């Protein structure tokens, strides 16, 4: 039997809720690293930064999404390659928060997680720039949490934590 992986990366889709009848699908990368056993990471494409204008008619549009009512940009010329100098947005928060939020509403600070109708889970991210409300398929998040528990079982996190390295990162 092989050992569990030291890091996990899972790509999934989330629905970014923009208004009552407006949302867009976006690709989210979920990450877990055994050397940072208490945290999970959600990575979003840079164009979905909270300070970006979600109502920009030239912004992301998904014609296959019945909830995306934005008019697509006029097809004048082929799209320019994405600007890779703009980094993706990464949110880091407690693995336990994500795990508990699959079954009940949790969180009082910048990150809140709660179950929603139809086997969905809502993740709310708050920053000074605003609030992002994301809807995930609960099964996708549950699979990610399960895989992270294979890498580092719940309750075993401190065995994997390098306190000296963590302290050095905090003081850097």
In short:
With 172 residues, this protein is an alpha+beta fold.
Describe this structure in words.
The protein is α+β, with helices and mostly antiparallel strands. Helix content is 20%, strand content 34%. The chain has four helices and seven strands; from the N terminus they run ββββαβββααα. A seven-stranded antiparallel β-sheet has the order 4-3-2-1-7-6-5.
Q: Helices and strands: which structural class?
A: alpha+beta
* Unreliable runs: 57-81
Helix content: 10-25%
The strand count comes to 7
Question: What would the keywords be for this entry?
Answer:
seven-stranded antiparallel β-sheet; 172 residues; single chain; 20% helix
Per-chain topology:
Layout: E1 7-19, E2 22-33, E3 39-44, E4 89-94, H1 95-101, E5 111-116, E6 120-127, E7 130-137, H2 138-151, H3 157-160, H4 163-171
Antiparallel strand pairs: 1-2, 1-7, 2-3, 3-4, 5-6, 6-7
